[in-house]
Amino acid sequence: MSDTPLFAIIGHPNEGKSSVVATLTENESISISATPGETTRCAYYDAQADGETVLRFVDTPGFQNPTRILAWLETCELTGAAAAQALIDHHSGQATFHHDCELMKPLAQGAGILYVVDASRPLSQVDIDEMEILRRIGLPRAAIINPKTANERNLANWKTSFRQHFNAIRVFNAHNASFTERISLLDTIKTIEQDWSPALENAISALQHDWKRRQERCVALICELLEDALRYSKSKLIANESESEHQQEILKAAYAQGLAKRERRIWHDMQNLYRHKRLKVDIPENSLLGEDLFSDRTWQALGLTQSQLAWTAAAVGAGIGVGLDTVFGGLTFGIFTATGAAVAGGSALIKGRELASLKINRIPIGGLKLSIGPNRNEQFPFILLDRILLFHSIASNWAHARQDNNASPEDNAAKHGATSKWSDPQRKLAASVFSAIKTNKREKLDRLYPEFRTLLLTNLS
Amino acid sequence: MNPAAKNPSSQADQPWTLSRLAAYEHRLYADESLDDDTLEERDRPLAKTLDPASSPSRIIQSWLDHPSPSSNGSNLGPTLHSAARLGTQLLYLAYALLGLGLGFQLLKYNGSEPVNVSAFFGLVILLQLLFVIVTVLLALIGIPQPKALELSPGVRITRTLTELVTGLVARLSSFSLDAQKRSELNAFLGRAKGRLWLYQNPIRWQSCAIASKSGIAFNLGICLAILAAVTFSDRAFGWQTALDVSAESIHSIVSLLALPWAWLFGEGQGYPSLSQISGSQIVLKDGIRSLHTADLTSWWTFLLMGTITYGLLPRVLLALLSTRLTAQSLQRLDFSDAASQRLLRRLTPTQDAFTLNTEAPTTAYASKARPQPTQAPNANKLTAAVAWIAPSLWADQDIMSRISQQIDTRNINKLDNILVADPQALSKSLPDPSSRLAFVLESWLPPLEETKQLLREARSQVDPKTSIDVYLHSGDEEIRSSDLDVWCNAIQQLGDPYLNVGPISS
Fold this sequence. Notes:
The complex is a heterodimer. Chain A is α/β, with parallel strands linked by helices. Chain A has helices at about 15-25, 65-75, 80-90, 100-110, 125-135, 155-165, 180-190, 195-230, 245-275, 295-300, 305-325, 335-350, 380-395, 425-440, 440-460, and strands spanning about 5-10, 45-50, 50-60, 110-115, 140-145, 170, 235-240, 360, 370. Helices cover about 50% and strands about 10% of the residues of chain A. In chain A, the strands form 2 sheets. A 6-stranded mixed beta sheet of chain A has the order 2-3-1-4-5-6, sandwiched between helices. Chain A has a 3-stranded antiparallel beta sheet with strand order 7-9-8, with helices on one face. The longest helix of chain A has about 35 residues, at about 195-230. Chain B is built from 21 helices and 9 strands. In chain B, strands 6-4-7-8-9 form a 5-stranded parallel beta sheet. In chain B, strands 1-2 form a two-stranded parallel ribbon. Chain B is elongated. The interface of A and B includes residues 12, 34, 38, 121 and 124 of A.
């Protein structure tokens, strides 16, 4: 038998067992339905970290004959996996007990039990019977409260009953659970059997390491995108000036599409990192992420405020001036510093929401060259960064059991426009990084990147 | 405008036909997607014109003749009737052609070998004679006709095939359909099973009538083949055997078989005489050249009359009988099933909702068109001979007090584990098999297999037409429509048209 801990997710039909498995194993391919009876056979799913299986979960059908099974168990002297196997042997071949035999299969293998209930509904006799069945079988077990509604009126009754039958209890909303909540659940499960504790500790460490690796990869992807987008330009040769106006529009559209494509690519990569194959990249229209990168709404809601932007640009401009003043040994009395700050700050205020400046150059051998980009707007990288952070917060917190695809920034309002909540030094650091990217100063970038990556990682956590 | 719609109550009862019944079922099925308020509003104008004292059959006929807005005014009945008539006519034609083809094949004559009377006799007359004997014997020993039909290989094969197909569909659906679609499919199959059970007698007799008429067409085809063969061509008939059977023995059998028509066509005319039988015996080594032509042609009248007497006439009698019994069984339909009762309550609102029929269901038969929770007025209590209440509801005094106010029963019990684990114990609480039963269960719990088993067992212990009501209680909250849908589908899957499910007010 494998050393990987095995847990059977057991319960009444339609209590959210498949949802719990889907979220714990980050597997969105598991069929989840509001109609009872979706799961008709046992299905084994692995929770993986860095490509290694660290935990195994079994999705099972719901109890169909708890009263009759309990009556049979009362006559059975066996316990543990042997009792489960005896139950299967006795009832196999009876069509009406098919689901019950299926759900007993992992217990016959000695799996730990995670009993899932929707505690927003009242406790009933069959629930007590099911708990009693699991108590009689005697394998290590925990109760997971997966509330479907906010109703907590019945919670006290449930908890009283749980205490009589289970070693641990945990509330876990499979449709909203974040990574932290998943780890907390595993911490709870760890306590139900001392022998499994080391294996579960290792599994938790591996999952946390894997999660950190994903975040680091996301940071790398963000830096790559910023470099790519801030240096992105597009040009086109045209024969004569008569078609210039029309071609300018085409070039502008192609430039905007190029940026959007780069943005979509990072979204797609992030989705893959968080194992969301089905989460739609086509964000709903009412969402900020559904807005165009250069739309009014995007520029109003994201990025820095005008004053933040001016002060940040001034700080960076002043930084450059300080360098010049230093070169002159202080003889300039800070004139370069003051001028740099004023010019950069003023420039940031004056520039509006422009796509990028468009240039027309005459080619000596004949014809014209239209070129657009790179975008020099100080606000643009902050907006781009905000959108990426916003998407990341959705993708990383999206429970795999949730299958409605209604991703929207409201799902994590706290991250809405993250850069505007940064401190002045943090914004200055970011602006310096953007400036270094635009001016292609590799050494400066390499110097700034470690701190900038730490800043991004903090924002992703 | 349909004249029936003007004054439906004045219309005389139309005879029910299976096509009309199918149209009725179609209308009921279509109504299931509509809510109760919509249905009541739609049927209110018609209900005002109906006489509540009319028979259920007549009220339903009026409703059926009243154009349904959901079907754009079209009535499915005549269409179904025409389609069914065309289908059966094509079937009869096919059987007639089959008889004709078989007749020509058996009467094939190439000039050297005469038509083998034994083969024709065995295949056409003897088999049909056996059918007549079996039918008469079954009638004599008193097996009810529908059950006698069940003994027939055709019915058995059909039943086995149906079970195989439904089993296969259920198995395939568990792999390929999600829970919702699987539940709907099983509910549909269950409903079909329930309705087939409800109309089993007319369906059986109608099947018997169609089979008999097909037999008539087949035998007519055979007779036509015989007449055509002897009228338009020369045919030699003979008999042969390798056994030691004398012509006298054959003559005795032939005379016996020819008794029914011997008074009309005597020996030598209606059936061959001894000398003709001797003269038509074929000995392969001698050939037929030595035999007389008169002897060789003497058999055709026997074959024709045998086909008419043992093939055609019994089929005609059976067709007449089964057509009459089909009509009788259709007119005997009492429309006491849950779906019909719900419709009748809607069409006769002046009557007390729960006293229209003492055995009438009080809630929808597994219908999406759900009744509103009963308001428990003192006069309108739900009735049940015995009621069982789910333990969690039983334990709550407030809930139990409200349930007791709504159900009129002297025998109210807790649905304890012993009963669920061993549903046969239900019989201890039953006063008699006609006792109407009620189960009050938690709406929030999806129906389990053991609950369905309990309901099946309850049905086995009461009469097939006794109502069993499942009332869903949602504790202190309003019942969720999704829960009710789940229950409706589950109950329909049981295929019991007298099993009802619906909410009881919280």
